[in-house]
Amino acid sequence: xxxxxxxxxxxxxxxxxIHDTDTQGNVPFSANALAKAAGGTPFKRPENGQFRPxxxxxxxxxxxxxxxxxxxxxxADFGGFGAIQKLTLKSNADQGAxxxxxxxxxxxPVLDNVAFWSKDEIxxxxxxxxxxxxxxxxxxxxxxxxxxxxxxxxNTPPPLxxxxxxxxxxxxxxxxxxxxxxxxxxxxxxxxxxGWHLFDGDPTTNGLLGVKNPNPFNSGWxxxxxxxHGDNVTWEILPNSSRDDD
Length: 246
Fold this sequence. Notes:
Layout lengths: L9 E5 L6 H4 L6 H7 L8 E6 L7 E6 L18 E7 L5 E9 L7 E8 L2 E6 L2 H8 L4 E6 L13 E5 L4 H9 L14 E8 L22 E7 L5 E4 L9
Antiparallel strand pairs: 1-5, 2-3, 3-4, 4-5, 6-7, 7-8, 8-9, 10-11, 11-12
C-alpha cells in the first residue's frame, strides 16, 4: 500500500476477469473475494474516474476516498486520507502502467466525484462525511488539479479550491437528526457536490466524456452541478458578465 502511494514508482498492469456471466451465469457472488483470489490490486476505497480528454481513452484518472476519519492508522503515506491514481493503457487496452499522481493529507480534500475542466485540468470533489466534517470543522469543496504539475515536489502549489459547499435548510435539519440516537437516520447533513457535468449538448458518440477537449463557457459548453442530500438542487455555473453597475 505504501508503494502504491509513493511518487515516482511505476507499476505494470494487466486487467483480470473475476466473473464472466456468459460462462458463470448470474448467481450472486462476492466481487471483493474473487478479486483477492485472482490477485487484484486493492485500493483505499476507489470511488470515481474519467478518461483524460484527447487521450483516445488511453489515460484514466481515478480517486481513492480513503478512510474519511482523521484518526486513520494508514496515514497519508498509505493512502489513508485518499489519493489520485493515473492509469495509462497500451494500445491493446489489456496492459498498462499505474502511477501515483497526488496524495491527500489530514486536511481536505477527501476525494469522490471527478470531472475534467480541460484536457490538462481535472476537478475532484470532497465527500468527507459527517464524522470528518466535525473533525476538521469544514464541509465539502471542489478542487482543481493541474495534471502538468509534479505533486511530489514540495514546492508545487496545492490544488485550487474553486467551490466551497455549505448546507441548505434541509441539510441543516438532517445534520441535527443524524445525531439523535435510535432513529435509524441515514442521510448526511451536508450538500455534497455531485453530478458535475460540463458538456456542449452533443448527443452523438462524439459527445462522450473524454472525446472532446472541454471549453467551459465557450462554443456552447455549459456547466452544471448538484448539491446531493438536503434539497438536491441542481445549479448552473455561469461566467461573470462584463458590465458596469450603477
